[in-house]
């Protein structure tokens, strides 16, 4: 599978770097492993990425068995930085943390998740697209926006 990922990476003009994304996991499943369960394919793709030198890996919530895949990866690669992406519900955030996630990503600011991880060891990376969203997030965490050179 590593060769397949490298070939995919080379085809996309990214050189030797391997960027594991949902596209690659889905691509791997549909093209190479039609008879395997999706969670197993995700696990194999993640292991191939790790073998190829990836040091930070996000498993998206849409991956069937996401928490089981994460838990197994944490067990086999305890020093890796593994996290879960597209986390929108506090229940999923708690389950991901219990499974060993070191970071959580959301496409938007989810205050319940932010409150839950505050002061803990799990990094929460909420998404924001507009200046209003960035300001709202900054106000929620009690910080002040910074400008370059400040």
Any descriptors?
carbohydrate metabolism, disordered C terminus, 2 domains, 49% helix, Aldlse_KDPG_KHG, alpha/beta, Aldolase_TIM, KHG/KDPG aldolase, 150 residues, disordered N terminus, single chain, 4-stranded parallel sheet, elongated, TIM Barrel
Largest sheet: 4 strands, parallel
* Neighbour order of strands in the largest sheet: 1-2-3-4
Mean of the pLDDT scores? 78
Percent range for β-strand residues? 5-15%
Q: What count of domains describes the coordinates?
A: 2
Second-tier CATH architecture of the largest domain: Alpha-Beta Barrel
How would you describe the shape?
A: elongated
Structure characterization notes:
49% of the residues lie in helices and 12% in strands. α2 (22-32) packs across α3 (38-51) and α3 (38-51) runs parallel beside α4. With 150 residues, it is an alpha/beta fold. β3, α6 (111-117) and β4 form a beta-alpha-beta unit. Strands 1-2-3-4 form a 4-stranded parallel beta sheet, covered by helices on one side. The chain has helices at 2-11, 22-32, 38-51, 66-76, 90-99, 111-117, 131-140, and strands spanning 56-60, 81-85, 103-106, 123-126. The chain has 7 helices and 4 strands. It has 2 domains: 1-54, no CATH class; 58-150, Alpha-Beta Barrel (TIM Barrel), CATH 3.20.20. The radius of gyration is 17 Å and the shape is elongated.
